[in-house]
Amino acid sequence: EAQVTQNPRYLITVTGKKLTVTCSQNMNHEYMSWYRQDPGLGLRQIYYSMNVEVTDKGDVPEGYKVSRKEKRNFPLILESPSPNQTSLYFCASSLYQGSREKLFFGSGTQLSVL
Amino acid sequence: AQTVTQSQPEMSVQEAETVTLSCTYDTSESDYYLFWYKQPPSRQMILVIRQEAYKQQNATENRFSVNFQKAAKSFSLKISDSQLGDAAMYFCAHNPTGAQKLVFGQGTRLTINP
Q1: pLDDT tens digits for A21-59?
Q2: Among B91, B90, B86, B88, which residue's Cα sits nearest to residue B103?
Q3: How far is A16 from chain B, CA to nearest CA, in Å?
Q4: Residue A1 contacts by C-beta under 8 Å, 6 or more apart in sequence?
Q5: How far does the CA of residue A114 sit from the closest CA of chain B (Å)?
Q6: Which one, of B45, B27, B47, B37, lies nearest residue B98 by Cα?
Q7: Do residues B23 and B92 lie in contact, with contact meaning Cβ atoms separated by under 8 Å?
Q8: Is B81 exposed, middle or buried (0-12, 13-18, 19+ CB in 10 A)?
Q9: How far apart are the first and last CA of chain B?
Q10: Dihedral over Cα of A107, A56, A63, A44: its sign
């Protein structure tokens, strides 16, 4: 089944404790991206990747890191999480680009930073 | 800044009735794409409909159709014969020129009354 797999689904952590949210797609998509969803703000892009070893900042990249060592994986890293990073996070992928094609989304990660 | 505005935070409709969700966007370009995504309580993001701006014809997908008014920069979603499974948060999205992302509106929560 074609899908974007995101883990974990829920995560509670404390300020400053490094964490990684994993994302993997099995559709051989070149484009992958991370969004965060906050009430009243919709979804906002954090980082995106056009292909292996090609990543770039989105609208809200502060406090986040990403890497794209393999085509299928695009982990989101929070080196020192803070309470303002409490949010619902989505990984998304598409075949070539993330602006004109259908985006395939993961099932989301609800992160709470205490 | 590119913006997408959904002015109705919440809407409700009786089962089997028709409801229209509003969306306006800001752009100076003539070629772009617009999307409606549905987010049910499962949190999964599901593409409902996609519209290419250069196409005059309004996109339709079964009970879902759009009213695309290019000059007014309006992109409303009409749901006919509403069903209980249509209850969800609906997001309107637009692709800013030259950016590999979507800009999402704030969302409209749709409730279906039996």
Answers
A1: 999 999 999 999 999 999 999 999 999 999 999 999 999
A2: B91
A3: 27
A4: none
A5: 23
A6: B27
A7: yes
A8: exposed
A9: 40
A10: negative
